[in-house]
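Title: Comparing notes on inverse folding

I've been comparing how different people in this forum approach sequence design from structure. To keep things fair, I'm posting one structure and asking everyone to reply with a full sequence. Here's the target:
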């Protein structure tokens, strides 16, 4: 295999293994090739516990800023805000939605979050430009991202 074809096969296998680790499902022995880099997961991607398709399988992205998302208890959703900022993420009520620990996510993602109990909470992320760590630091502003998560049973 040539270098680019091998990278594509290895990348596809790695993505399948990461998804299986997130969902507890077995990785497919013949994963399908991704249609393009950075494209959102299809709505039938299993992200809920038990491998059942999630109603919120599409990742939460910058385009969702200020919006609301309905989840069910057990749903998992990927927070994928990109690499243009250094993100600090918090959830107002971690008894309702919390980050799934010990899961490695793709570059540009800030974690997988699971709906734990019925209720409403706000996921907030503050993005600081990387140039803030330069000497001298830049004066570019931070950005604030918020999405309201409503979990039903």
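Reply #1:
Here's my take.
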């Amino acid at each position: 295999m040539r270098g680019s074809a091998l990278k594509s096969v290895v990348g596809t296998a790695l993505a399948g293994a990461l998804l299986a680790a997130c969902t507890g499902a077995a990785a497919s022995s013949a994963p399908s090739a991704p249609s393009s880099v950075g494209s959102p997961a299809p709505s039938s991607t299993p992200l809920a516990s038990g491998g059942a398709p999630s109603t919120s399988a599409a990742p939460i992205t910058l385009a969702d800023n200020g919006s609301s998302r309905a989840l069910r208890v057990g749903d998992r959703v990927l927070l994928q805000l990109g690499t243009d900022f250094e993100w600090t993420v918090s959830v107002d009520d971690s008894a309702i939605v919390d980050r799934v620990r010990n899961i490695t996510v793709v570059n540009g993602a800030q974690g997988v979050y699971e709906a734990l109990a019925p209720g409403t909470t706000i996921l907030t992320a503050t993005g600081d430009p990387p140039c803030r760590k330069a000497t001298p630091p830049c004066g570019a502003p931070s950005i604030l991202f918020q999405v309201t998560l409503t979990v039903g049973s």
